[in-house]
Design brief:
The structure holds 2 protein chains of 2 kinds. Chain A has 14 helices and 12 strands. By secondary structure, chain A is of the alpha+beta class. Chain A folds into 3 domains: 145 residues, Alpha-Beta Plaits; 65 residues, MutS, DNA mismatch repair protein, domain I (3-Layer(aba) Sandwich); 158 residues, DNA polymerase, Y-family, little finger domain (Dna Ligase, domain 1, 2-Layer Sandwich). Chain B has one domain. In chain B, 12% of the residues lie in helices and 44% in strands. Classes of the chains: A alpha+beta, B mainly beta. The interface between A and B is medium-sized, with 32 and 27 residues.
């Protein structure tokens, strides 16, 4: 027998986490709201039955389900349960990939569907979260299998007959990594289901969807080309940002958001032990416009002062005056491991800035995140006052995906 | 603000549920039975912990004959400014699992802070404490004020 990959996917994870500590939510239509309290970012199966979808604003969801209970997100709690889930999985497999906050891939060599059921039961008993499990010959198939068994299913796609049942009639969009645009490219060739994708000519898939598509073709045909990684690969970029809690027109408040996202980005760069050489800023405006600007830094850096100056310059280049900025994202690219970084010949690191960064990091580690922060963030006192804003899903490290 | 609260009947003493059986409602597909208290009720009431006992008292004052503030809520700012001092308010905790404002039911972790005052006949009246709403609460409920929560803040 070849390789066996397992995929474990928590069922409506954020809601399940809330139900672990708030038993009164069991059996109810529950929606977890996102960072601003406006949109549903996770929903229980009971809520889904009313037609409520992820990303739906609360004011659209309410008329569909007036008895629903809404919950404020708490990523710190979700991380606690996510890591407990990993610990249980590690008892069952030597190689476990922390894919995302609610998903795990694992080497399932020698594991039977009965063993997978035992793992599923152990997670429910010890963590309190229901999960669906898939077993297959590749990661892509295992993920399709777990998804087909939701909620609380355990599906094996090992063996020709089981594999056929999994792929037949399943829309090609269900394949992770195959975007809707790719599906549109495949449709003229009569490729609409997973089974048709697997049966298609490999060279045609390569031509239409490049190497990434070909990898998925191999995976769907049972040849594992995507490894189960227990150590995340070096990231190509690190980004921080999100909604700005309304349309920001005040220049000081906008600069404060730039400072906040820069500080979060610097934390990410520190955590991954990398410098970046390029910075990209994306702003979305109330009028629907989107502006994206990019700057190459004079030297590979992870200092707040350098990145903040660049980010402010990029922001001003977008001419945001009076337009109302609703969303901001900062992306650090061209990452280099710090031990390999090339120092600039003329722009030597400023020892005072370095000392400030050390003091800031030390105090924040001891007292709490953002306890010591840039003065430029002062106009965002309301945002910092809410402790839940101190932690986001991207602050959970060690995942191989988002 | 917070216009109503609910507590699952499983969290309440049986005799109290029996006394207020008219307040029992079933929620959602799971038909979770709970006791609901809203300020719009014909006889608005609030459950609260008073002297280690769970009791149900009138919620604020909607009756013009009683000489107490005609509202169901007490602003924390006004309480701290001493505007309620002449009524000798006692701090109380209002247990609640869910809160209601502008049609939005939201989760409450522990409960809500309140005060208990007495009318000229010695009758108890409970008021819910409020404060300016956090950004999150304001977006979620579209109300500029929110209750003073016990435990986890929204």
């Amino acid at each position: 027998m070849g390789r066996i990959v397992g995929h474990l996917d928590a069922d409506c994870f954020y809601v399940s986490c809330e139900r672990v500590r708030h038993g009164s939510l069991r059996g109810l239509a529950v929606g977890v709201l996102g960072n601003q309290g406006a949109c549903v970012i996770a929903k229980s199966y009971e809520m889904r039955a009313f037609g409520i979808t992820t990303g739906m604003p609360i004011w659209d969801a309410l008329p569909l389900c007036p008895e629903a209970v809404f919950v404020k997100r708490d990523f710190q709690w979700y991380e606690v349960l996510s890591r407990r889930m990993i610990e249980v999985a590690r008892r069952f497999s030597p190689t476990v990939e922390y894919y995302s906050i609610d998903e795990v891939f694992f080497d399932a060599g020698g594991m039977t569907p009965a063993d997978a059921r035992t793992l599923q039961r152990a997670i429910l008993d010890e963590v309190g979260v229901p999960v669906s499990v898939g077993l297959a010959a590749s990661k892509t198939l295992a993920k399709l299998a777990s998804s087909s068994g939701k909620p609380f299913g355990c599906v094996s796609a090992l063996g020709e007959e089981r594999l056929r049942r999994l792929l037949d009639g399943r829309p090609v969009e269900k394949i992770t990594g195959l975007a809707r645009r790719s599906a549109r490219r495949l449709a003229p060739y009569g490729i609409r289901t997973c089974a048709e994708f697997a049966r298609a000519d490999r060279r045609l898939i390569r031509r239409l969807l490049t190497k990434r598509g070909e990898d998925l073709w191999w995976e769907l045909n049972g040849a594992a080309v995507l490894p189960v990684r227990d150590v995340p690969a070096l990231r190509k970029n690190i980004s921080r940002g999100g909604s700005l809690a309304g349309a920001v027109t005040d220049p000081d408040r906008l600069a404060a958001w730039v400072a906040r996202n820069t500080e979060r980005l610097v934390e990410g760069l520190d955590r991954h032990g990398v410098f970046c050489e390029r910075l990209t800023l994306i702003l979305t405006f109330k009028d629907g416009g989107v502006d994206q600007r990019r700057a190459t830094l004079p030297v590979a850096a992870a200092d707040f002062a350098v990145l903040y100056e660049a980010a402010v310059r990029l922001t001003n280049a977008c001419r945001p005056q009076g337009r109302g900025v609703t969303y901001m994202r900062l992306i650090a690219e061209e990452l280099t491991a710090r031990r390999h970084a090339q120092l600039g010949l003329f722009d030597r690191p400023d020892p005072r800035q370095k000392a400030v960064a050390v003091v800031k990091r030390t105090i924040n580690e001891k007292v709490g995140r953002f306890a010591l922060r840039s003065g430029a963030t002062l106009p965002l006192a309301d945002v910092y006052r809410d402790e839940a804003n101190a932690y986001d899903v991207c602050d959970i490290y060690g995942k191989t995906c988002f | 603000m917070c216009f109503g609260i609910a507590i699952p009947v499983s969290d309440l003493p049986e005799e109290l549920v029996e006394q207020r059986s008219d307040r029992v409602a079933a929620r959602g597909p799971g038909e979770l039975r709970e006791l609901r208290f809203t300020f719009r009720d014909p006889r608005p009431e609030l459950p609260l912990w008073h002297g280690n006992r769970l009791v149900i008292y009138p919620w604020g004052n909607r009756d013009g004959r009683v000489r107490l503030p005609r509202t169901g809520w007490c602003r924390r700012e006004s309480l701290e400014a001493g505007l309620w001092s002449h009524l000798r308010p006692e701090a109380v905790d209002i247990p609640a699992a869910f809160g209601l404002e502008k049609g939005v039911w939201f989760l409450i972790e522990e409960g809500i802070r309140g005060i208990l005052v007495r009318d000229e006949r010695g009758g108890p009246h409970a008021y819910m404490l409020t404060q300016p709403a956090s950004h999150y609460y304001r977006i979620m409920t579209r109300h500029p004020r929110m209750p003073v929560f016990l435990g986890w803040q929204i």
